[in-house]
Amino acid sequence: MVNQMSGETVLVVEDEILIRFDIVDALTDAGFIVLEAGNVAEAVAILGATPDIRAVFTDVDMPGAENGLDLAQKVHASRPPVAVLVTSGHRRVTEADLPEDGRFLPKPYRPSQVIANLNEMVRAA
pLDDT tens for residues 68-106? Predict the structure, then answer.
């Protein structure tokens, strides 16, 4: 059983709609308040309008000029306390690719892995 969070806000950034729906449902069931974006531009707009976001869970490969690694660096530069968890099924991401304290979780992942990582990261922040 994964410990549940009490109302922490997480932004999920994923362009594959079915994958996004699945993880949003799992995070909501685990007690997170979940916001959604389908690309980096949407995510940046949501981050700018929502000061209480505690974590971002983003895929690397997305449509548009910027990818999830670009977003991870932007989040860290503008809001260092926000936890950043990055995922990809196509790229190998190293620690050097991530912002300080960022984490990588390869696809396919289990929702429980995402929940456990976010719980741990938010508590540490």
Answer: 999 999 999 999 999 999 999 999 899 999 999 999 999
70 within 8 A of 86, measured Cβ to Cβ: no
Which residue stretches of the chain are H helix? Answer: 17-29, 40-49, 68-78, 111-124
pLDDT higher than 50, residue 1: no
Q: For residue 55, list its beta bridge partners.
A: 10, 83
Q: What is the mean pLDDT of the chain?
A: 94
Report yes or no: 118 and 5 within 8 Å, Cβ to Cβ: yes
Is 1 a member of any domain?
no
Question: Is 32:5 a contact under the CB 8 Å cutoff?
Answer: yes
37 found inside a domain: yes
pTM confidence score: 0.95
Instruction: Give, to the nearest 10 degrees, the angle between helix 17-29 and helix 111-124.
Output: 60
Q: Is residue 2 part of a domain?
A: no
4 assigned to some structural domain: no
Q: What is the mean pLDDT of residues 19-38?
A: 97
| Total domains in the fold of the chain | 1
Give the CA radius of gyration of the chain.
13
